[in-house]
Specification:
alpha+beta, six-stranded antiparallel sheet
């Protein structure tokens, strides 16, 4: 499952948004950053291996006054990183 959530941030900047998502899903913010169309981003990884579909990874971007969450979900231990990386690599912001 891929979900893209874009909206005004209620918690602050990039680090705060990523930490909030990680806390909500019992995940961790990965060390280092990546870029989404030239904008700094952080990755949140959820280590749980659920039987039901739920987020496993999220690429978090703060663009302008908006938070953008590129969320990948799976069941069990199925990988999702490559799919999210492909989306982030080809993402283009529209003005």
């Amino acid at each position: 499952m891929i979900s893209i959530d874009i909206g005004k941030s209620a918690v602050g900047g990039l680090e705060d948004i990523a930490a909030s998502f990680a806390e909500q899903w019992q995940g961790v913010v990965s060390e280092g950053t990546l870029e989404v169309d030239g904008v700094e981003a952080l990755r949140v990884v959820i280590s749980d291996k659920p039987a039901a579909l739920q987020p496993k990874e999220c690429i978090v971007v703060h663009y302008g006054d908006r938070a953008c969450l590129l969320i990948g979900g799976t069941k069990g231990d199925k990988p999702i990183s490559e799919v999210l990386d492909a989306i982030a690599k080809t993402w283009k912001w529209k003005e």
